[in-house]
């Protein structure tokens, strides 16, 4: 009898943030992909926002960790528990056996795909559909993907940068570069430790990236440099330390991870059929995902590829919007779904 009440749910299970879309309600949940659990009995203590508050602040008996690494499941048990928590919270415990569509990296192996399906089934899903992230991002960016015309999307999230060229509703060329937001944070942490003898946690590094991170600073830039006060621990003395860091210093340390993404973009462009390459030069490169909000990332890609790039509106919600549109119109997007 309850099958009449089956709900369709879309999940964007990201390395940094997870978003849940419920049919006819829209995006109902946006929480960090973090789980806190007890070391002794592996009991889940907190998920999402509550668990993120614990990052870097837990005693030895509790571990607060990200169960997704570079876009794939690193810890199966906690990921399954986290999906269960997200489904219960999004559906307010009302619906049994929902139909779930979940986004996966474009280059996922069969093992990684099966792990995602199994985790969703264990969380209570009756049907599980997989959609590749570049396609979901393109649908969410309202790109007319079904046309015989080339569109290029670069979806930069927390763990991966998904780069794809789409035509006739399918990915023609794609690459998954396992460098994105978390690698930016790590680069900032290493830079501060090496150059300034300052040790900071991942939350502080993320905060620095969001406030003064800049992908592309031009020499003739007249604007005053942004400076931020950073609190951490002195690497030599072990004592608390406060210092000021400027955006030029942060720009310098972001160049290595940015170069990895740029190489991926260039590779995809070099592999694209000439007709599609011509379409992309006309239409430009669409940037989506939370990490595409890094200041001047569009200018960086435009400068080094010679192809205009622009960040889509509401880029953080691009993938989940696409997943939601695809699950609500399953028949229309049959080609895109595995």
Description:
47% of the residues are buried. This protein has 338 residues and is of the alpha+beta class. The strands form 5 sheets. Strands 3-2-1-9-10 form a 5-stranded mixed beta sheet, with helices on both faces. 37% of the residues lie in helices and 27% in strands. The protein contains 10 helices and 18 strands. A hairpin with a 4-residue loop joins strand 11 (151-156) and strand 12. It has helices spanning 49-54, 76-91, 110-122, 133-140, 181-196, 202-212, 247-271, 274-283, 297-305, 318-328, and strands at 8-13, 17-22, 26-32, 35-38, 44-47, 62-65, 68-69, 72-73, 99-104, 127-132, 151-156, 161-167, 170-177, 198-199, 227-234, 240-246, 285-288, 309-311. It has 3 domains: 2-33 and 67-136 and 318-336, ATPase, nucleotide binding domain (Nucleotidyltransferase, domain 5); 144-179 and 255-316, 2-Layer Sandwich (Nucleotidyltransferase, domain 5); 181-253, ATPase, substrate binding domain, subdomain 4 (Actin, Chain A, domain 4). Helix 2 crosses helix 3 (110-122), helix 4 (133-140) packs across helix 10 and helix 5 (181-196) crosses helix 6 (202-212).
């Amino acid at each position: 009898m309850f099958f009449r009440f089956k709900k369709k749910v879309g999940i964007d299970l990201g390395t940094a943030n997870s978003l849940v879309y419920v049919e006819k309600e829209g995006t109902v949940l946006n929480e960090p992909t973090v789980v806190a659990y007890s070391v002794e009995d592996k009991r889940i203590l907190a998920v999402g926002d509550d668990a993120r508050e614990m990052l870097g602040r837990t005693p030895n008996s509790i571990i607060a960790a990200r169960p997704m690494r570079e876009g794939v499941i690193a810890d199966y048990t906690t990921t399954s528990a986290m999906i269960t928590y997200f489904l219960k919270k999004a559906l307010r415990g009302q619906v049994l056996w929902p139909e779930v569509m979940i986004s996966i990296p474009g280059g996922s192996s069969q093992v990684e795909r099966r792990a995602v399906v199994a985790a969703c089934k264990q969380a209570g899903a009756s049907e599980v559909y997989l959609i590749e992230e570049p396609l979901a991002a393109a649908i969410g960016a309202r790109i007319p993907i079904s046309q015989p015309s080339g569109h290029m999307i670069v979806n930069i999230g927390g763990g991966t940068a998904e780069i794809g060229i789409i035509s006739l509703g399918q990915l023609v060329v794609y690459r998954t570069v396992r460098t994105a937001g978390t690698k930016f944070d790590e680069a900032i942490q290493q830079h501060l430790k090496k150059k300034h003898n300052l040790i900071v946690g991942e939350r502080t590094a993320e905060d620095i990236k969001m406030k003064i991170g800049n992908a592309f600073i031009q020499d003739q830039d007249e604007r005053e440099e942004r400076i931020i006060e950073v609190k951490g621990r002195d690497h030599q003395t072990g004592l608390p330390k406060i210092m000021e860091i400027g955006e030029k210093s942060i720009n310098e340390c972001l160049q290595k991870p940015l170069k990895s993404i740029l190489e991926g973009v260039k590779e995809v462009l070099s592999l694209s059929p000439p007709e599609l390459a011509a379409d992309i030069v006309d239409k430009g490169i669409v940037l989506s995902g939370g990490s595409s909000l890094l200041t001047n990332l569009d200018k960086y890609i435009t400068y080094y590829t010679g192809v205009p790039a622009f960040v889509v509106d509401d880029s953080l919600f691009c993938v989940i919007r696409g997943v939601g549109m695809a699950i609500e119109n399953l028949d229309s997007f049959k080609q895109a779904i595995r």
